[in-house]
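Entry type: protein chain
Record version: 2
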Amino acid sequence: MGNNKKDLKREYKESERPMGIYQILNTANGKMLIGQSVNLPGIINRERFALNAGGHMNKQLQADWNTHGPDNFVFEVLEELKPAEGGDIKADLNLLEEMWLDTLNPFGERGYNQRKKTAGEKLDQMIRNRSQKPTDLAED
C-alpha cells in the first residue's frame, strides 16, 4: 500500500494542471476579482478556503463574502492557457490577465482588483519616498 501512495504522489506531481485566468464573481452586486495561476484548481481551492476561514488578503472581497455569504459567489475559469514549448508561461499569463482586466474592468465599483500603477506613477512614488525625511529614531 505504501508503494501505491508514493506512485500516486509522483503521478500528481508529474501531471499537468490547467493554468490560466479565473474569476470570483459576487452575484449579489456584480463585483468580480480577476486573477491568474499556473494551477487553476489549486488557486480556486485556496481562494475559497481563505474566504471561508475569514482571512482573504482582499479585505473588500472578504467583507462582501461575510455579508452576502458563499452562495452568492461563483468561482470560474475564464480562459485556460496551454503551455508552449520554450515559451515564457509567466509572461503569457501576465498578458492574458491584462487583456481580461482591460475587457472586464473589475476596478472600483465594478470589482475587487486594484489598478496597477504605470511606470510614471511608480517613478513619482519613488521620488516622493526619497524626498521624505526619515524620522529621527536615533536621537535618544
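Comment: The longest strand covers residues 73-81.
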